Here is the input.
Amino acid sequence: MTDHRLSNRSAQALPAGVAAPRYDRASVTPGIVHLGVGAFHRAHQAAYVDECLAAGETGWGITGVSLRSADTRDALAPQDGLYTLAVRDSGGETLDVVGAIGRLLVAPEDPAAVLAALTDPRTRIVTLTITEKAYLRAAGGGLDATHPDIVHDLANPQRPKTAHGFLTEALARRLAAGTPPFTVLCCDNLPANGATLHRLLIEFATLRDAGAGSRDDAAIAGHIAGQVAFPSSMVDRIVPATTDADRARISGELGVEDAWPVMTEPFRQWVIEDNFPTGRPAWEKFGVTMVGDVAPFEDMKLRLLNGAHSAIAYLGLLRNHATVDRAFADPAIRQFVDALWAEAIPTLPDDAGLDTSAYTAELTERFSNTALAHRTAQIANDGSQKLPQRIIASAIESLEAGTEFVHLTLVVAAWIAACAARGKTLPEGHFTDPLDTSLTALLSQQLPANETVTAVFDLTGFARDHAERLTLIELVAVHLVHLRRDGTTLAFAALGIE
Ligand code: CS2
Here is the structure.
């Protein structure tokens, strides 16, 4: 029988030029559980772990968990967890079949299996890429204790839905069994991501303890606060969503079907705080930077890469550019991004050895990668969750320092304008946001710019409790007036950009 699908067996006979795992996958044991096994994880953490396994480490296989949909498991389980990583730029494409993911689980189908993987004593690290919105923060930044999934998880600790519920229940069971806690390694684009998740979990566990009364699973909050490590990390690799054309092309090149290959760029970076009480792979041998404090790297990435990405996405959408490379080739957007970087760079620490000129020069090259076709609509998703750390933080710090700026606030106005353009000049549902219901209702009222921006700041919690909130609202509103009157042409002209 011929193999039609990528699998352990068919991977033995791939065309020359396609790299397949060079290690015995059967001897790898699970050591990492990953929550949120999407394309980003498969292009980033799993690729690093694959290199550790290829170098002979055997204890760090990944169990991939989807917290929502079964799509990834359905695509990858029939291929023994294997998938192709296609690294693309103008020089061409290299194909690597990655073998780091041993098992795939779908939490809503079988929460008990996920808890079993998390409580397995061999699991020593839990990594997460669940996206910003899945941290379930309220507008003030604390845990949204009214969110239906949090309410559910507090009432049903044995059948959780959220990362908060799974991690807390697993840590409680490990504590009861005398198994040391795993290290929780957050890999999402949040500032101080480890510390942020730590704080949210303590809040969740405190509510859970209060509800448990005399149940013997109470008192987990103190354990999480004092005994569990939450190193922060900065992750970076651009990963556009896979298209059907990618699937067909890669399957053609492999000679067997790969139901879900992942596309990415050559660049990758991972900076991690070195705090792993129960061990970790020797990541530093494969280009990972292990540090004491990740904050400066995190801020540089969030404010320069992700901040520019959001700017390119919203301004690009308003100017009909479907991909990042095309938007970035638009001279007005290019000029805008340079000016945005000039405003954000002074907010970064100058004593942390960051080389911002080399960094932005590299970003210029990465955003120009025409082989990726990274869609502006993909980046436009979830703006309410992304803008605080990408744009608002730089704006607040600049106001505090008395530095003038005009570009940062246009990104916020462009987000509002792009949201309002959905169903008009942009397709309905072209991108989405967890606050869409309230946001759409608000924008349909067509209030004056200042009132619109105030209501958006109230809804999202942007700059909440900051003395500069009103100034910021006024600055955003000026841009929104221009965008409403004559689109990006007028907004750019007001900034001297032609
Ligand atoms: C992007 C990021 O979709 C987005 O919001 O800005 O996913 C970005 O591509 C990655 O953070 C790059 O590391």
